[in-house]
């Protein structure tokens, strides 16, 4: 392809990236909300298991069931929002790509006078690459959804490592023979 067509394609790729950036932020926010509600759900389940006898003795099973039902609906709502976000992103990606490729082909034919065979090769290349790029972006969006959970996990691990007592490695020495110190062996005494 010629330089003008290549620059036009790069510029249009930037437009696609910018058009999807707001959906990426939305995807990360929905992942954060899902993480908070999932943590709350696990806490409620743990509390319910801890107070199972107490709830039965006071007849509060319906209340406990309603609390878990509400949390379950909230988590289902977040899951549905994440699925909608992925679907919307895929739809916007395909629509924007078709519109921008139409613009690229129009300018390539009318303004830059690119041969038809070259445009056919470009069309075949875009048809092969577009699903791959869409799949990569979907995986990126899923990663953004899981990022808050990963951040919480790494901060918990760092806090646990900070609080833990340091373990000093003890060296093992071999001096022409194997010497074991401070080891005792006890055998049962056989009765006669």
Q: What is the overall pLDDT average?
A: 79
Task: Please tally the β strands and state the result.
Answer: 0
Ranges where pLDDT stays below 50 over 5 or more residues in a row are none
Strand portion, in percent? under 5%
* Termini gap: 97 Å
Q: How are helices and strands ordered from N to C?
A: HHHH
* SS class: mainly alpha
User: What is the percent of helical residues?
Assistant: over 70%
Total number of helices: 4
Described by strand count, sense and barrel closure, the largest sheet is:
none
Radius of gyration: 31 Å
Overall form: flat
Task: Describe the fold and architecture.
With 192 residues, the protein is mainly α. The protein has helices at 3-50, 52-58, 61-110, 116-163. The mean pLDDT is 79.
Element layout with pairings:
Layout: H1 3-50, H2 52-58, H3 61-110, H4 116-163
Helix pairs in contact: 1-3, 1-4, 3-4
Features:
192 residues, mainly alpha, 4 helices, flat
